[in-house]
Each structure stands twice: as C-alpha cells, then as structure tokens.
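Colleagues,

For the teaching module next term, I've prepared a clean inverse folding example: a structure given as tokens, and then the sequence designed for it. I'd like students to try predicting residues themselves before seeing the answer, so please don't circulate the second half yet.
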C-alpha cells in the first residue's frame, strides 16, 4: 500500500491508523469488516429495548439527599414507576438505592434531567433485556461516579435461573421490568 502524502509526513507517520479509511466497520489491525452478521444483529438489539431502569445509589450518610432526589423524581416524573428507597444492599446492588422504571419514550429527557438533579449521587441507567449481566455492565450508562462492585455473579445466577424457569423472552422482559417480590422469590428458588 502506498503511503499517503501529507504536508507534514512525520506527524502522519505517528498516526498509523490514518493509513486505513475511516470506516467504523474496520479496525486498524484488521482492515476486514469488524462485525459479522450475527454481531450486527447483536448491535441492533438496542432497537428492541422498550424499558430502562435507573438506580440512584447512596451511602448511609447521604440518605437525606437520596430522600430529596426521590421526592424530586416523584414530582417531576410522576408518570414513571418509582420504587421505594432501599437503605441496605440487595441483589446485585452494593449499597442503598432506589429504582425508577423509564420507558424508552422518556429515556432521553429523563437522562438529561437526572444529570442535573442527582445532587452528587451516582446513577446507573441500564436497558431491560434478557441478559441482566450485559445490561448492568456492557450496556449501561453512569451519571456520576460508577460503582465498581455491582455483583455480576448474582446477575449471572439470576439469568441462569430465568433460563431454568423456561420463560419466554417476553415473559422475562415483562417480569424484570417491574420486579415484584413474588417473582423474585420464584427466581431465587431456581438459584
């Protein structure tokens, strides 16, 4: 391959990735297509997401701030399902938090709003799919500091239990979006 000719060739030689066309489907090390058709399907899975969860985390000394943010959400986003405040760790969550169920139609506005109204608390935004591990790790967004200690092993057990239960994808999505204590008890019975 002939080297491109640029006015300051030393600068461009220090940037070897510019030797290849700027195409998001290729990589520098391997200029062949990056994504197979199955990976393209995975990368388009976002189109099927209809619900997100937002988890607002707080430490014990931040409980009053959490109550304030909870009240702000209840007032500004009354159309959303807002869970009560959980003061203790539970499931994969390593500290107190509360959850908001956010339909995709409200997600953009809610994400922008919570960016300015979290009062220093960390917020995890994740899609609801049939893969809880990926939802809480690879496919999530953080507003504020991320928490490095989400219990992904718990989520792997949760996903495996859902598989054992023989639920359809639609049943999983419906039940995970609005986790009810009786459903969680059924899932835990399959751990």
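(Answer key — instructors only)
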């Amino acid at each position: 391959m002939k080297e491109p000719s640029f006015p300051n060739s030393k600068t461009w030689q220090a940037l070897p990735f510019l030797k290849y066309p700027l195409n998001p489907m290729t990589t520098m090390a391997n200029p062949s297509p990056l994504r197979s058709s199955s990976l393209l399907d995975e990368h388009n899975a976002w189109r099927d997401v209809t619900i997100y969860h937002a988890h607002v985390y707080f430490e014990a000394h931040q409980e009053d701030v959490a109550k304030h943010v909870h009240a702000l959400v209840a007032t500004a986003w009354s159309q959303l399902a807002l869970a009560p405040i959980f003061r203790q760790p539970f499931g994969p969550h390593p500290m107190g938090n509360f959850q908001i169920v956010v339909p995709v139609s409200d997600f953009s506005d809610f994400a922008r709003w919570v960016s300015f109204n979290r009062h220093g608390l960390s917020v995890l935004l994740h899609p609801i799919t049939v893969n809880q591990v990926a939802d809480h790790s690879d496919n999530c967004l953080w507003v504020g500091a991320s928490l490095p200690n989400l219990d992904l092993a718990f989520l792997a057990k949760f996903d495996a239990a859902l598989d054992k239960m023989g639920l359809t994808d639609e049943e999983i999505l419906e039940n995970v979006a609005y986790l009810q204590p009786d459903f969680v008890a059924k899932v835990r019975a399959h751990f």
